[in-house]
UniProtKB/TrEMBL annotation:
The keyword Nucleotide-binding does not apply. It comes from the Bacteria. This is Taurine dioxygenase. InterPro entries: AtsK-like (IPR051323), TauD-like_sf (IPR042098), TauD/TfdA-like (IPR003819).
Amino acid sequence: MAYDVLEVKPMTRRIGAEVFGVDLGQPLSNRQFEELHQALTQHQVLFFRDQQMTHDAHKALGRKFGPLAIHSGVPGLADHPEVVAIHADENSKFVAGESWHSDLTCDPEPPLGSILHMPIVPDDGGDTVFASMYAAYDTLSERMKAYLEGLTAVHDANPIYKALFPDLDRQYNRTAHPVVRTHPVSGRKSLFVNPSYTTHIVGLPKAESAAILGYLYHHAGNPDFQVRFRWRPNSVAFWDNRCTWHQAIWDYFPDVRSGFRVTIAGDRPV
C-alpha cells in the first residue's frame, strides 16, 4: 500500500510496522489519520519512537479512532479515568499482561485497540511480543477451520482479577464470543480465543474443550506469527485488539518501567 505523508516500515512479513513522520502529541491531519488507519488494518500493530504526549493529547489520539473505553478490571487515573497507568518497579509482585492475551475479551464489546506510551523503560529488557491471529487462523488446516466455524467460547475475567485482588468483593465480566472472528474493517478471519481470558468452548465436553483450546494456544504461539518490540523512552505501540495477542516480558526486575495506556472501544465480535 502507498503512503503519502507517513513512512511505514514493516518489521516482519506477517505483523508489525514502525511508523515515521508523525508527532502523536499534536492533532492528526485527516490524511495522517487515514494512513494510520490503513497501516493499522494492514500491519495489526504499529510502533512509534520519540513521542511526547500529555494525557489530554493521548486521549485525543485515541478518540480519532473511536470512543475511549473505561477499563473494566482496573481503575484509571483520578483526573483521567480513560488513562490506565502501566507501572512496575522494585515493589511489584506482578506486571500487567505477563501472559498471552487480547485485552478485555471478557467484555461484551471487547476493545478495538490500545495505545501504550512508555516514557520510562529499563536500559534492557521489558520487550512486548505481539502475535497475529490472522496468521494463526490462516495456517490452520481446512478441516480444523470447518470444525471451529460456529463455535463460541466463554471469556471470563474473574479468575484473573480475583486472584490479583482477592479482597475486592465484585464480579467481573464474563461473555461468550465466536472462536473465529471476522474483522469488521479488513473482512479477514482470525482466531478469537486467548489463554488469559478464555475458559472453555460452549457445548463441548470439558476434556474436548481443553484439548482444542490447548492446541489453538500452542499453534497461535508459533514464533513465525510474532513480532517483538524493544522499547526505548517515549516509544508508543498501537495494536488492533481484534486480531492480535500480546505479552509483556518481565525480565527487568527491579528496574522501573512506567507508562500510560488508553483503550479504544470496540464492538461485539461476529
